[in-house]
Each structure stands twice: as C-alpha cells, then as structure tokens.
C-alpha cells in the first residue's frame, strides 16, 4: 500500500519540478551545510548568503522546494515566517534585476527560416540525402506547430502521433494528457488551423510521411546517418536545436529560445486584433500577467488567411 501511495504522490508532481526541488534541497543541505528540518533563522541566513549571487526567482524556487520538503515530512514550514517574507521583499528591492526574455520569432523571420529549410529539403531529396531531408522536414514541422499553437518546449517534446488528428485543408487537433497549465491532469485538446502558407498541418503530414512514423513521439533525434530515434526529443535539447535551425536560416540564434515561438505567436495575434481573453484561452494562460509578459504590442505583421 505504501508503494502505491508513493507512486501516486510521485505522479502528482511534474518530473521537472521534482528534479528541481530535489536539487534545491540538496543545495541547502549539502552545498550550504544547512540542517533539516530548518528554522526560520537558518532560512533567512541562507537567503542572505545567496542574495547577491542568485536572482529573486531562483531564491523563491529554493524556498518552494524547502517548503514542500517540510510539509511532506510533517514539519512546520519555516519559509512562511514573517521574517523570511520581509527579507525576500528587501532582497528584491536591493537587487532589482530586469527579467530577461527571449526575443519573439517574428512572422517574417519564421517565413525566412522555413523558406531556407524548404530549399534544404528539396536539395536533399534530389541528392537522396535522407538524413538532411529528415532534419529539414522535422524542423519545419517543429517551427510551424510550435508557432501557430504557441506551445512550450516541453509540450512540443511530449506530442505523440496517436494523439494527433490532422486533416489537410481543414486543421489538426493535438491532445496533451498533461501540461503546465493543466493542474488537474485532465488532458487538453488543442486546435491548429490549416493555412495557405506556413501551414502546420501540411508540415506535420510531410514530416511523419518522410519519417514513416505511425506511433510514438512526433519529434525525435536524428543521428548523422539519418537514423531516427525511438524516444522523443528532450525538452532541454530543444533550445540548442532551435538555435541551430534559426542560425542556418540567417538569424542571430543567441537571441532566441523555445519560448520565442510562443512569444512570436502572441505578438502576431495581438497585432492582428485578438483580444487578450481570446489569446489567453487559445494559448492556455490562466492569468493576465502571464499573457502580457509575452506580448510586444509594437510588432505588427501581415495577415495570413485561413483556408476556407
């Protein structure tokens, strides 16, 4: 019975969150030399020792991990002490840091990179270079699905062929059993449109056809000989992969991350008349603050018309 309880408790926490919490607790206990269970005073000293070296978000993440440890072990949570809360406010005021954000991938830039990839695909097909053809088709699908759905990197990495229904000229439905915004793990279905150009539906069909994928992860590693992996891409590998794709398309890759696709779509939608509530519903944001962080109202794009 205890094993079953542990199993379900583990399933209730995202893998990335669990790993980051474990690392934070180890940092407090091993690297810093703190004792668990901790006191509010030791938590305060820990914050002071790292206030100048870490961002406020990193410190808050460390506190969340320590809070979770104490609660799960049945101890009072020292991170909620008034002194700790006041200390965090003081650190934020004393060490203000402008939050860094990845640049949005603008529609014109997306088109530039996809055009370069289409050229690469055509050349690879002529030369019967299967490895290059696979990479080009995968990367086009990754960019267009990521952009038009505003997906996070981990969501792209977890897409499964059996959870996608695509109808050329109409659109596609992509189901994710769980995601960051789906706190109850009920699963969410997302729709993506068919477009006259830069079409995610066509890109997806081209990719799974040339790759011969009938089930399992949509986006996978391709080795130098063109062998397709069985496992899905790791979410952490998407940033270097995306930057490599953008660099080959003529963009300064270091400005971008996997969030650039999400920011790019949000900016395009805002510039094309989407109201903030419609955008929040489409992308999956739960609060206005999250949505506004992604939108750059100064950007504008030409409209893309949906296929009838």
Key descriptive features of the protein:
single chain; about 300 residues; mainly alpha; DNA polymerase, domain 1; hpI Integrase, Chain A; 2 domains; 3-stranded antiparallel β-sheet; two-stranded antiparallel sheet; 13 helices; 5 strands; elongated; disordered C terminus
Number of domains: 2
**CATH superfamily descriptor of the largest domain:** Intergrase catalytic core
* Average residue-wise pLDDT: 85
Given this structure, which CATH class of the largest domain is correct?
Mainly Alpha
* Oligomeric composition of the shown chains: single chain
Topology-level CATH name of the largest domain: hpI Integrase, Chain A
Q: What does the main sheet amount to?
A: 3 strands, antiparallel
Shape: elongated
Low-confidence stretches: 297-308
What is the tally of helical segments? Answer: 13
Rounded to an integer in angstroms, the radius of gyration calculated over CA atoms is 22 Å
Structural class computed from helices and strand pairing = mainly alpha
N-to-C CA distance: 56 Å
The percentage of residues in β strands lies in 5-15%
């Amino acid at each position: 019975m205890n094993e079953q309880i542990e199993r379900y408790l583990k399933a209730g926490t995202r893998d990335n969150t669990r790993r980051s919490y474990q690392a934070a607790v180890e940092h407090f206990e091993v690297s810093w030399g703190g004792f668990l269970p901790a006191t509010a005073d030791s938590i305060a000293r820990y914050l002071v020792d790292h206030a100048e070296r870490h961002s406020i978000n990193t410190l808050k993440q460390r506190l969340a991990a320590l809070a979770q440890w104490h609660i799960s072990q049945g101890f009072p949570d020292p991170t909620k002490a008034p002194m700790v809360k006041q200390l965090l406010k003081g650190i934020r005021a004393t060490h203000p840091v402008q939050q860094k954000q990845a640049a949005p991938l603008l529609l014109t830039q997306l088109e530039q990179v996809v055009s370069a990839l289409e050229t690469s695909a055509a050349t690879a097909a002529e030369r019967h270079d299967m490895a290059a053809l696979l990479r080009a088709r995968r990367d086009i699908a990754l960019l267009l699905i990521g952009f038009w759905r505003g997906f996070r990197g981990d969501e792209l990495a977890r897409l499964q062929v059996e959870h996608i229904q695509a109808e050329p000229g109409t659109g596609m439905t992509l189901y994710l059993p769980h995601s960051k915004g789906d706190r109850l793990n009920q699963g969410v279905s997302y729709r993506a449109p068919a477009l006259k150009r830069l079409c995610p539906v066509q890109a997806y069909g081209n990719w799974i056809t040339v790759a011969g994928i009938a089930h399992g992860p949509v986006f996978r590693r391709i080795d130098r000989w063109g062998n397709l992996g069985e496992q899905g891409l790791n979410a952490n590998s998407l940033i270097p992969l995306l930057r490599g794709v953008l660099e080959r398309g003529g963009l300064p890759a270091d400005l971008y991350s996997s969030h650039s696709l999400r920011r790019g779509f949000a900016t395009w939608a805002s510039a094309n008349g989407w109201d903030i509530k419609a955008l929040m519903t489409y992308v999956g944001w739960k609060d206005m603050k999250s949505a506004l962080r992604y939108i750059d109202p100064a950007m504008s794009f030409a409209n893309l018309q949906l296929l009838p």
